[in-house]
Amino acid sequence: MALQRNLFRACYLYRQTCIPCCHESTAAQNTARKDASKKTEVKFNWKDGLNLENLLKEEEIIVRDQFRAYCQEKLMPRILHANRNEVFHPEIMKEMGEIGVLGPTIKGYGCAGVSSVAYGLIAREVERVDSSYRSAMSVQSSLVMYPIDAYGTEEQKQKYLPPLARGELIGCFGLTEPNHGSDPSSMETKARYNAATKTYILNGTKSWITNSPIADVFIVWAKTDVDNKIRGFILEKGMKGLTAPKIEGKFSLRASITGQISMEDVKVPKENILPNAVGLGGPFGCLNNARYGIAWGSLGAAEFCLETARQYALDRQQFQRPLAKNQLIQKKLADMLTEISIGLQACHQVGRLKDEGFATPEMISMIKRNSCGKALEIARLARDILGGNGISDEYHVIRHVMNLEAVNTYEGTHDIHALILGRAITGLQAFTTDN
């Protein structure tokens, strides 16, 4: 299959031909929809339990459908081998770049400039195949391209964003350290400024970093010696003292390459600092973007598990009847559908608020926590419905179970997001013993 038409081009054509008249036709469409509902019986569609489709804009549907075709035709045939052999194929990044789904919400610099809901739909489709591929895409988009766009200089944007958008450069994000995961404020990575050479000297180690062994661009967060504030730095592959060894032996996200970032007296030019990010607000802003995509993506994995479990229950005969005819099976399927449908509506609402400037970090914590926790439960239920076959990777469900164990933990654990919400509810923070 030839790669799908570039989303940037598709969206541009849509905006030129459709948007000028869409405001005039919206009222007519709504009236027609109401009239149609009166004339015809409205039937429940279990694949879209709360009619998310009706809330999507035409451009968002175009983006989703094009990327779904790519994911099913190009990524799905790769995943079994990739997961079994713990390999990531870097050419996937160029394919995604050609389609236009890297940094898709960024305006300009070769990016598609689509809505946050469209980005969520992209994450949902790729994670329907595997969380590993969504991780690679969302790190590039939310944790590498976003901070350059949000906190960088115009020179940095011009230099890095276009090749990152094309997938010609691969990026990674270094915040987590061997001794500091949920508590990044205690990071040990230091940046010492040398006034004579106008460089920062970075020393430290980052761990569990997606894409790091194959990265060309590294967004690294470190404490400066000047004010002990956390700052973001752009490092490049080949800098002396910079290494990124691969972490082997993962039983989750096996089709995503993960490693460390080791820095020993790495000299970083002063112009490579992200000037508009000071303190934890910088990396947390990136993480909120990534968490938003994860909330959508994990539900894509859950949808795959529901569809697989449903079909298996219909096909599998036990005691002279389909498994699906048992009340316990139907109850499990009903629970799965309910959580997916409600979760997607919540993600859609936050996406709309995000584009309007009204989304808060607490909202994103809520949907990340809900989607990931419920998706993991759904994957486990699907595995249970498949019985012994559920542990075979040929059915793919056990792979989603293993992946979602990690997805439920990274970008803020289930419990950390509960504490973020608890702080908002009570006005009291429970992260430390400090008042």
From TrEMBL:
Entry cofactors: FAD
Pfam families the UniProt entry points to: Acyl-CoA_dh_1, Acyl-CoA_dh_M, Acyl-CoA_dh_N
Domain Acyl-CoA oxidase/dehydrogenase middle: 172-266
Gene3D superfamilies: Acyl-CoA dehydrogenase/oxidase, N-terminal domain, Butyryl-CoA Dehydrogenase, subunit A, domain 2, Butyryl-CoA Dehydrogenase, subunit A, domain 3
EC identifiers of the protein: 1.3.8.6
GO biological process assignments: fatty acid beta-oxidation using acyl-CoA dehydrogenase; fatty-acyl-CoA biosynthetic process
Listed SUPFAM superfamilies: Acyl-CoA dehydrogenase C-terminal domain-like, Acyl-CoA dehydrogenase NM domain-like
PROSITE patterns (UniProt xref): ACYL_COA_DH_2
UniProt GO cellular component terms: mitochondrial inner membrane; mitochondrial matrix
Location(s) in or outside the cell: Mitochondrion matrix
InterPro entries linked to this entry: Acyl-CoA_DH_CS, Acyl-CoA_Oxase/DH_mid-dom, Acyl-CoA_Oxase/DH_mid-dom_sf, AcylCo_DH-like_C, AcylCo_DH/oxidase_C, AcylCoA_DH/ox_N, AcylCoA_DH/ox_N_sf, AcylCoA_DH/oxidase_NM_dom_sf
Pathways involved: Amino-acid metabolism; tryptophan metabolism; Amino-acid metabolism; lysine degradation
Signal peptide per UniProt: none
GO MF annotation terms: fatty-acyl-CoA binding; flavin adenine dinucleotide binding; glutaryl-CoA dehydrogenase activity
Reactions this protein catalyses: glutaryl-CoA + oxidized [electron-transfer flavoprotein] + 2 H(+) = (2E)-butenoyl-CoA + reduced [electron-transfer flavoprotein] + CO2
Keyword Transit peptide among record annotations: yes
Limits of the Acyl-CoA dehydrogenase/oxidase C-terminal domain: 286-425
Acyl-CoA dehydrogenase/oxidase N-terminal domain residues: 58-168
This protein's UniProt keywords: FAD, Flavoprotein, Mitochondrion, Oxidoreductase, Transit peptide
Family: Belongs to the acyl-CoA dehydrogenase family.
Name of the protein described by the UniProt record: glutaryl-CoA dehydrogenase (ETF)
Natural source organism: Potamilus streckersoni
